[in-house]
Structures are given as C-alpha cells and as structure tokens.
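Human: If only I could read backbone structure tokens as easily as an amino acid sequence. Take your time, and here it is.
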Amino acid sequence: MVASASDETSPSLRAAKLGPLPRRMLPPIEGYASKPLVSLEKAVKPLQSIVKRIQLNACMVTSLSENPKDGLTVDESASIVLYTFESVPAEDSLYNILNKTLNSENRRELVPWLLYLRLLLTALDRLPSKRCTIFKGVDGDFTKDYPMGKKIIWWGFSSCTSSSDAWQSAPDFNKAKIRTLFVINCHTGRNIKNHSHRNTADDILLLPAREFVVSMTFGVGNGLNQIHLEEQTPSFPLLEHVQAPNQRSNESQPTGIKSKFASTAAINAVRKAVIVISMSLKM
C-alpha cells in the first residue's frame, strides 16, 4: 500500500513517518463551505472530545496572533498557528489527528471538523498560491511505492520547506539510516511563515487532496533516496473551494464580535495555565 506524506507525525523540520494511503479513491473533502465563519473559540468546540487541551491551545495561539499580517483576521491567523502547534506528546497534536481523519474512508468523521476547516481554509485562501519547488523529508525508502508515472493523491495537509539545505542540517532526518526526500514542483503551496508557530521563513503548507505524478525516483547514496513529484490539477475537484470574504480590520473577528480570547485577563490566565501544564509535563 502506498504511503501518504501528510503530517501524521510532525509538521516541524524533521523526518516524518508516512501513514498509509486509503486503499481506494476517497470522496471529495467537502461540507464546510456552507458552514458559518465563526471565531476560533467556537470552531474548536466540537473538537473538545477529539483533541486534548484544544480549548487551552486555541486560547494560547489566539493570544499570539494579536497583530496578524497578510490581511488575515486574528482568528484566521490563529487557526493556522493552531494547526502548526505541536502538543506533548506529538500524537495529541491537532495536525496529527486532523490528517488521520482526512485520510479516513469514513467521511462522516469530518463532521466535527467542519467549522475549523471553514476557518482554516478561509485563512489559507487569503494567502497567494505559490508555484515553487518544495521539499519534504521522511523516514524509510518509498521508491518502490512511487514508481515513475504513478498518480498519487495526498489527502492530508503537508508541511514542507522551500529550502533543500534545511534538510541537510536537520538532525532527525540525517540520523535515520534509510530516508527519502520528496522534491515537489507545486502550484498551490501557501507560505505560512507569518502565521506558523514554528516561525520559519520557508514554511510552505500544501492543502489537502493534492494530486501528483511521480516524475523521477532514484537513490542518492548513503541511505538517501529522492522522489520527484509534479502537482497536477485533478479531473474533478477533490477539495471543496472556500473563498475568503472581503478583508476586514485585523481587530475584528469572523463573528463580528471581538473574541474574549483577546482580552488581557484571558491572555494572562492562559499564560499561567500554560506554565502549569509545562511544569507538570516535565515532572
């Protein structure tokens, strides 16, 4: 079974472990475009039983997004920051659970995610599509699963970098005995550097349901393999399009009411809670 390069282990600059692709073609990802555009606080409420500490993490990243760039609202920017935020353990991270759900054959599992997807994809729609070559390092050898000419669909979000040099110095990637570097020519990448918890200059996020064709596969040596992918437009839409509404002031929220997360008291309370949780995790 071919592997998926969605962020099922970590969106940070270290070798990811690929999860399996669905055994058959999945239905398109849809159902969120008709949902209202709400604050991040409201968008994550249906996820409280699915993602641990989701309300606390949403509160924290909102406090970090007070002056967003690129014309995004506070909640829109915070939705991207929340996606890139890594929990301890990493398996509890929102990105990990969301991408597993996007790769599931049971599309009903996406229902609790629809409000968050509406907000996140609206935010990403404000960022220009980037035509560029990007890179993603993973553990293991997948050259047999990616023969030249094969059509591949990655159903989850995929975090990549626009710098190949970054992978050469990534300790986790170079520590692996067998590893694969995906070299991807894409036209729908979004540079999320201004809205990433990782705060890296070359952080490129691929949207879900991207279709690729394998253009080249070869071994470099010393346990390193390269797989080259060319993004192509699918014959029918695999991801429901959502268009961002007219830009508004960064002080306004999607609901038209300033989120209570933005209040000084709430921010201070969150910072204290984060310190307590951090201390408990170290004990």
